[in-house]
Amino acid sequence: MFYKGQDNVDDLKNVLSSPESAEKWYIQILNSINNGILVTDEQLVVRYINSEYTRITNVKEDEIVGFHLLKVRPGALLPQVVTMGKPLLGQYRREGEVEYIVDMAPIIVEGKIVGGVSVVKDITEVRRLSEEVKKIAKKTGRLKTMVDRIYKAKYAFDDIIGNSISMNEAIRVAKRAAQGEADILITGESGTGKELFAQAIHNASNRQMGPFVALNCAAIAPSLIESELFGYEEGAFTGAKKGGRIGLFEIASGGTIFLDEIAELNLEVQAKLLRVLQERSIRRIGETSEVSIDIRVMAATNKDLYRMVQEGKFRADVYYRLNVLNVHLPPLAERGFDITLLANNFFQFYFRKIGKSFEVDKKLMEVLLQYSWSGNVRELRNVIEYAVNMCDEDNIITTLHLPKWFKIDDERQRIPTSSLAEMVQEFERRTIKNAIQHYGASVEAKQKIAKELGISVATLYNKIKILETQNRE
What we know:
By secondary structure, the protein is an alpha/beta fold. It has four domains: 5-124, PAS domain (Beta-Lactamase, 2-Layer Sandwich), CATH 3.30.450.20; 151-330, P-loop containing nucleotide triphosphate hydrolases (Rossmann fold); 333-401, Helicase, Ruva Protein, domain 3 (Orthogonal Bundle), CATH 1.10.8.60; 420-472. Helix content is 48%, strand content 16%. A five-stranded antiparallel beta sheet has the order 2-1-5-4-3. A hairpin with a 2-residue loop joins β3 and β4.
């Protein structure tokens, strides 16, 4: 029975109007307490114990109530408390196999000590629960170790191959982004290495010891993506696992979550993602309360999210939350001799993998350099893996070992007929032109371009002069 408001207070007064009623009321309260209670009068005669006191100490009511406390329990400290008028807390006691802690205090009415009270707390049960907590903590520790092992970023910035101006700029921005905590949007065509950059950023950040959880949003059915990200409680829906399931956001707590192909999320899930981005909390499906999480969100897309926002296909608030920092990866066709660096690296990788080493025909490298690479680095790697596995006993990999679908059918992609010197000159022309378009034509810009290209400013000016002369001719 609960009493609220003036009318109910009056009802309570009526219940307590007689001494008999009041005594029953207070005794019922004491009997409901989970700790053991012992009460004495000022003469140290025990006037009351509750059932929990008997359970903990194994002292029965008829053995102690009405008797002087020291006759029944010679080592009791409550008499000192009543005599001194000061509480005594946290006293350890043991009765057989039962261990407990006692808090004692004098009972003072109108400035006069009229008795004492002992509150007994069973620590045997507390220790049992503590052992259970330790077991759970140990199990949780093992799970965390497993999570850290499974959800671990493999790549660092040193694993990124490329020395072109555009790639160096992407790496510079990514390294700066790694130092903060802001969410990051990585953009670029399919196959340009967006997850590679995401892992490198994670491993260069303060979260490197935490998990790196990656999810390809296009690889999960729209009906399952929410439970995958947020998790669910037992019985949340038909087919839900017993005990529920933790979501990837919770698994990533303390680290980074990478959402690849973010454009594939439907608007409903985007709305829930917005709350994660704003509040850093999630709610499992079927749960009413929220769980706080400590994560950094990185997302990637090969689509124009800004255009999707304008078309109503992507939420503007989610876009601006994700696009705090943008790392844009250039297509492989714009990276010049990075193609050669990557190709040589892939050749060596697959040579080691098959346990053989082949010579690579120069004409093949020229073809790779001129190809458009619509599939970018991923396509280049696949082409080289195919060529290595198709090489015969001649031990020379040529254009004959390229896949049949590898076509060079436009002017830009044909096998070059010009000399190597002419090819180098043409590449220099395009590289310097792109750099000036990117950085500008000021003295400071040219100094930066020269530094990026690894040449002196004077050499850069000479090359620009030669190119200008050729253009006039």
